[in-house]
Design a protein that fits this description.
Elements (H helix, E strand, L loop, with lengths): L10 H16 L5 H8 L4 H11 L2 E4 L2 H10 L4 H4 L2 E8 L13 H28 L9 E9 L9 H5 L12 H4 L24 H8 L12 H5 L10 E6 L9 H11 L5 E4 L19 H19 L5 E5 L4 H4 L4 H4 L8 H8 L5 E5 L4 H4 L12 H5 L10 E5 L12 H13 L7 E8 L2 E13 L13 E11 L7 H13 L3 E9 L24 H12 L42 E4 L2
Parallel strand pairs: 1-2, 2-3, 3-4, 4-5, 5-6, 6-7, 7-8, 8-9, 11-12
Antiparallel strand pairs: 9-10, 10-11, 12-13
Helix pairs in contact: 2-3, 4-6, 11-12, 12-15, 18-19
Length: 598
């Protein structure tokens, strides 16, 4: 086939040929865009097809990449861009420095590199808007931020090599399951004589080399790019999504980085934030003053929930998932180690600032009992009137998922899970559009999930009425999954009946199931049971977590996330017997407990 004969083929045949050329490149770990770029030189038709693929996802590693991006992406190519990954490649280091934290000079150098790249990129995007005013009407692009050094994977943190090339649009690498447990705790020991002592487990100094300072990367106002723009970060309304994945351990400062970003990206509608929990270092000493690393992170969360969300006036979806690794942090997760009790806390701040969101997913960094503290049974809170007022509602909230220590507190410690369900029911009255709510927790073979779901049912079709023209009735269901066989109290059922009725729905059914404790060791083990499990983080991050938990690479699921599913039969205990009435009682059976209320 020649260049002249290709346009003569039927359109269906041309599409089949081009799609077949794309498939082999997707299977290659390296050189995908090189192949696509070569194909784009064949003819005009091939150029238009492959440029849409080449410029859809942009990965920038250095400042030179940013300059090339501004030079090569012009004209119609700008309309093809959907995702920009600004992955700052920090300087390399050798074994003489892998066991020591970064020096002050290194920290300044890293901040300067990140600042130059980000400000240059923002200037380019702002230039697009000045030269092409209608580009703001496009769907908008997503900006992803990360930072790492290539040598992070060469020392103690071998698992980074497995996910170094994972992308938000391409999933995880094929060798991930084999490499995730290859941490070299005896770093350099194999190259030394057998009589040499083993290197101990990485200490705080070693961890801080990869995690960076507790305050995270921040803008350096003395950087050349900042001085060139007279310390004014240009606005870029084209950015409608901001993503920070769990790909690497290094974080970003909330007050000195994320807050200024939100002020200039005024049209951001989605914010995905997957930070790693701060290291439990004994103390960091800036200017000789000891400061707990976790205290810095807590102050960042105060700014995140108080100021950052408020600046994002167009924000519709907020996803926060705090990652935790027992090998690095040496203890259980902070919410599981010191369970918070209402009132107050980060959860209450999040509740006050999330009134205009459509979707909210907060996992392992706030507790649901703090979020619902104004509605807690018998709780007294000075600011409860803020959320309890009739004029203050979550008018747009449709999906809500929160983690909580109270969700896994067994009856031997009281019934806080029941209080949480009652408080959530009282708050749901102020969520008129709520479709799904999930409250969950998991740790040390104890797990609990509460689910509320609204469904729409049509009347049965008849010969006189078409299938889709019957009257619609909205109904709701609640479900409780626990490892200790819990059941709803009468007060909890009454609270959710009231919530459903306030929205013009009926509470159709109440269900309780018992889970097998052996499947639930850490929070990530329960994600497969959640209806909103694919919304708690990016698709690639979810695959990474499942690979790390199982040690194998999971094949992609049909039409779904590839690791989370709606079926949970594998985790259920087979229980028999039981019975009772419909008022808080249970209809026993082999599958669990289920009560129809209507």
């Amino acid at each position: 086939m020649t260049e002249a004969s290709f346009p003569r083929l039927p359109p269906e045949i041309r599409d089949m040929i081009l799609k077949l050329l794309v498939l082999p490149a997707r299977r290659l770990k390296w050189g995908n865009q090189l192949l696509h770029s070569a194909y784009a030189t064949v003819c005009k038709q091939w150029q238009l097809f492959f440029e849409r693929i080449n410029f859809k996802h942009i990965h920038l590693l250095t400042r030179y990449d940013v300059f090339c991006f501004g030079d090569k992406v012009h004209g119609r190519r700008r309309w093809y861009v959907e995702w920009i990954w600004l992955d700052v490649q920090l300087p390399r280091y050798d074994c003489s420095r892998c066991k020591t934290r970064e020096s002050d000079e290194e920290i300044r150098r890293h901040n300067r590199m990140f600042t130059n790249m980000f400000w240059d990129l923002t200037d380019i995007l702002a230039y697009w808007e000045r030269t092409e005013p209608f580009i703001n009407r496009m769907k908008g692009l997503t900006l992803e931020l990360s930072a790492h050094s290539v040598d992070d994977q060469c020392h103690y943190y071998k698992e980074l090599g497995a996910r170094m090339d994972d992308t938000a649009w391409g999933g995880v690498g094929g060798w991930y399951g084999l490499l995730r447990k290859s941490r070299d705790n005896a770093h350099m020991w194999r190259e030394q004589p057998a009589s040499a002592p083993r290197v101990p487990f990485p200490n705080d100094e070693t961890n801080l080399r990869v995690f960076g300072p507790p305050k995270g990367l921040k803008f350096d106002l003395l950087a050349p790019a900042v001085r060139k723009m007279e310390e004014k970060l240009p606005r870029a309304k084209i950015v409608k999504g901001l993503v920070i994945r769990r790909q690497f351990y290094r974080g970003f400062s909330v007050s000195h980085t994320l807050l200024p970003i939100m002020r200039v990206f005024t049209r951001i509608e989605s914010f995905v934030f997957e930070p790693w929990r701060s290291l439990e270092t004994e103390h960091i000493q800036p200017h000789g003053q000891p400061i707990l690393a976790q205290a810095i992170r807590e102050a960042d969360y105060d700014i995140l929930f108080n100021d950052l969300i408020k600046y994002a006036g167009n924000l519709k979806r907020l996803t926060i998932f705090e990652n935790h690794d027992s090998r690095l942090h040496r203890t259980t997760h902070k919410l599981l180690e010191h369970p918070p009790s209402p009132p107050g806390g980060h959860g209450f701040l999040l509740a006050c600032s999330s009134l205009y969101l459509e979707e909210l997913y907060a996992s392992l960094n706030v507790d649901a009992c703090q979020f619902f503290s104004p509605f807690w049974p018998g709780a007294v809170l000075k600011n409860a009137a803020i959320l309890a007022a009739d004029l203050c509602k979550w008018h747009s909230l449709k999906r809500l998922s929160l983690s909580s220590q109270s969700a896994i507190t067994t009856p031997g410690d009281g019934l806080p899970y029941d209080d949480l369900i009652r408080a959530a029911g009282a708050a749901a009255i102020k969520m008129p559009l709520l479709e799904i709510m999930e409250l969950w927790g998991c740790d040390d073979h104890t797990a609990g999930v509460f689910q509320y779901r609204r469904s729409v049912r049509r009347a049965a079709a008849t010969t006189a009425t078409p299938l889709d023209s019957g009257p619609r009735t909205e109904q709701a269901r609640i479900r409780l999954l626990t490892t200790w066989g819990a059941w709803f109290s009468d007060d909890a059922i009454a609270a959710w009946k009231k919530a459903a009725n306030s929205h013009g729905k009926e509470l159709e059914a109440v269900e309780a199931r018992t889970l097998k404790p052996k499947f639930f060791r850490e929070p990530s083990d329960i994600l497969g049971l959640l209806d909103l499990g694919d919304c708690l983080m990016t698709r690639t991050s979810a695959q990474q977590i499942m690979c790390e938990s199982l040690g194998v690479l999971l094949p992609p699921a049909r039409g779904g996330l590839g690791c989370f599913g709606s079926s949970y039969e594998w985790a259920l205990e087979r229980v028999g017997g039981g019975g009772g009435d419909g008022d808080g009682g249970r209809d026993g059976g082999e599958e669990g407990n289920y009560v129809l209320l209507s």
